[in-house]
Amino acid sequence: MEKINIICVDDQREVLSAVLKDLAPLADIFHIEDCESADEALELIDELDAEGEHVALIISDHVMPGKTGVELLTEVSADTRFSHTRKMLLTGQATHADTIEAINSACIDRYFEKPWKAELLCDAAKALVTQYIFDLGIDYRGYQDALDTNVVFARLK
After folding, report:
1. Which residues carry this modification: 4-aspartylphosphate (predicted)?
2. Please, what is the Cα angle at 9 between 7 and 10, to 5 degrees?
3. What rounded mean pLDDT belongs to the chain?
4. What CATH number has the domain bearing residue 63?
5. Residue 115: domain span
6. Among 41, 48, 106, 149, which lies 20 to 30 A Cα-Cα from 7?
7. C-alpha count within 13 angstroms, C-beta hemisphere, residue 69
8. What crossing angle do the helices spanning 13-22 and 118-136 adopt, rounded to 10°?
9. What total of structural domains would you count in the chain?
10. Cβ contacts of residue 47 below 8 Å, gap of 6+?
11. What is the bridge-based pairing of β-strands 4-9 and 31-35?
């Protein structure tokens, strides 16, 4: 079974802990990493790529010191190694212009305002990782317990 990673990025430890807690149902199947800055996340995805691991999803806060979440996700979006990586933005402070920038430049797949509902966040992550697995043609059978069955059935038709 190939190693599939979900990367969570937020400069506030308590928010990061909440995201990790909400994604706990996926942690038995997928490897979930946390980073406290965009630069740390970029280093991590480079390491994971060098080790031949998959970066299926990046969930990032928007307002962070240094690079914002939109800047991080835009950089990842522009890197051909991660063309299938799914991107989710979490924020409580984005402006309308920030949101448009995230959609247009970072090609985000999902957007959640803080505070979010844990079940909705986990379901969205599950659906995005499932899409990633099918887009890359990864053998999904080892991940069945953590996949979004609606996406699976739609793809298998």
Report:
1. 61
2. 155
3. 92
4. 3.40.50.2300
5. 4-156
6. 149
7. 33
8. 70
9. 1
10. none
11. parallel
